[in-house]
């Protein structure tokens, strides 16, 4: 039985004041049985981590450097994230891939550094609308997964979380239907099972893309959807908690 994980990706939103209010709102509410995690902008990690101490709500970063230390201006190392209280690090979010030209290979190296440092990488994969319409969704998510597996072997996936985020569903209000999402989640798990059945059975596969309290229940009822990576709806404590309760 995989524990559901509901992770909020706050992206580059908020201010110190609004972040404090959001964390207070989340702490004040009823979380349900899911594991919750929040991924604030990096400058707020220590503040949020301190506020979450003892709550059981996990902390995650939105990215992690592929190098250990040194002259990499603007980057943040895995050990710094660990020291700031992070348990998770998102890698390969489609916004990083598309807007900052992060290649599959770079994403795999970021993943490796996170895993080697004891962070749980949340590996984001997913197709664009154009790719879906061309019928290459499975080929795209396979390629994105293979970049990690070929570099590090399949067992490392067992220490990670996968987030299937169809690019066309992110921030658009256009959610994948539960059937569309389940089809890709099932494909991912079957693909992993051909390499290592134990890893396939264990790994949490989250759905991301316009998930909200109204559509979460049905998505999360699908057998291979083990949680959500939530953008917009995670910026409202009540919505985030409501998604957590439906998991
Ligand atoms: P939205 O929930 O705003 O569509 O964002 C999803 C996402 O990108 C989470 O990483």
Count of separate DSSP helical elements: 11
Number of strands: 8
CATH top level is Alpha Beta
Order of helices and strands: EHEHEHEHHEHHEHHEHEH
- What overall form do the CA principal axes indicate? globular
What ligands are attached or bound here?
1,3-dihydroxyacetonephosphate
Beta-strand portion reads 5-15%
User: If you average the pLDDT, what whole number results?
Assistant: 97
Give the low-pLDDT segments: none
What helical percentage do the residues reach? 40-55%
Structure, described:
With 247 residues, the chain is α/β, with parallel strands linked by helices. It has a single domain, classed as TIM Barrel (Alpha-Beta Barrel). The chain is built from eleven helices and eight strands. It has an eight-stranded parallel beta sheet with strand order 7-6-5-4-3-2-1-8. α1 (16-28) packs parallel to α2 and α10 runs parallel beside α11 (237-246). The protein is globular, with a radius of gyration of 17 Å. The relative contact order is 0.16. The mean pLDDT is 97. The protein binds 1,3-dihydroxyacetonephosphate. 1,3-dihydroxyacetonephosphate is lined by residues 9, 93, 165, 170-171, 208-211, 229-233. 1,3-dihydroxyacetonephosphate binds next to β8.
What keywords describe this structure?
binds 1,3-dihydroxyacetonephosphate, 247 residues, TIM Barrel, 45% helix, 8 strands, 8-stranded parallel beta sheet, alpha/beta
